[in-house]
Amino acid sequence: MPARKPTARELEKLPENIREHMKNLFHEDDGVRRSAVKKLETIALRQSQHAPAITQYVIETLETGEWRDKMNAADALGKIGSEKAIPALIKATRYVGPTNDKYSAIMALGSIGSEKTIPRLIRLLQADQYDVRSIAAQALGNTKKKRAIQPLIEAMKKDADEAVRKSAATALGTIGYENAIQPLLQAIERDGEVSSEATLALGGIRSEKVIQLLTRLLNKRNEQIRRSAAQALGNLESELAIPPLIKALQKNSGLRVRREAASALEKTGLKSLEQTPVFDENHEHYPFLTAIKHVKPSEHLKAFTRLFEDLKKPRYKNNSKEWWEAHAQQLRSLEPKLKQAA
Known about the structure:
The chain is mainly alpha-helical. It contains 20 helices and no strands. It has 2 domains: about 1-145 and about 165-170, Leucine-rich Repeat Variant (Alpha Horseshoe); about 240-340, no CATH class.
């Protein structure tokens, strides 16, 4: 059922600032209109009693505004999340032109997360344009509905476009149901273009079985799969992921893989060790030194040795004198522990 436009009496009961923002939805300046949509969105999220009236006015912008207004309105309606906006958003997805308001409407349907949006999104997953199919896959993932899983599995297996298959794999991880595990494993083995996304998607499915599977994937010959497996283990934020990640630091698995493993350790058990970041997180070496500080050298000397070797790589040779002095100070503070562990 479409949203009902508020009556004049109902509008009079709204706070003055809301009425002013509603008026500005139709201002001649597009910056004022854009600002009004964002402010109304914020109010609707914080003051739910005003959401129905705001939703209707934003729907009117979606239906009658210029393409930028339509895009902003669709984004706002998705965040507000009212099912009353679904008919207008579905109508907006039928636009045949190339403009972004159509894509925003598709994503908004996914953000609302209602079963009522699933049939339209599944239909869009069969659209002629690959970009529409890719966005529809993302939106289906955002619904987090079990009903979306099988259409996404089919798209991941059969769609002719790589971008669509990748989006479908990612969406399966976003939904996070265990019945997607086997199709994702098949994609990793059979579709090299999607293997990285499918591996990362496993990290969205929280189960011990997934940790075991990702641990095996850390031994794959394909470096990108190993990197994605390490990242996925970190995304699970489980202490069960710590041993395989430590092992990945010890092995000659490549600098990039060890970097991902160090970053993943930071997300997992290291959270429980009262970690204090050693350097600013914007620096590339930050994950390594975080891992160095918190992984016990007495238990993981090989991992430490690998991390120190990584810091000697040519990629770091042009860093500043201050950078190296900071490293030297950090390494000197750890040297006694390493000697003791040895």
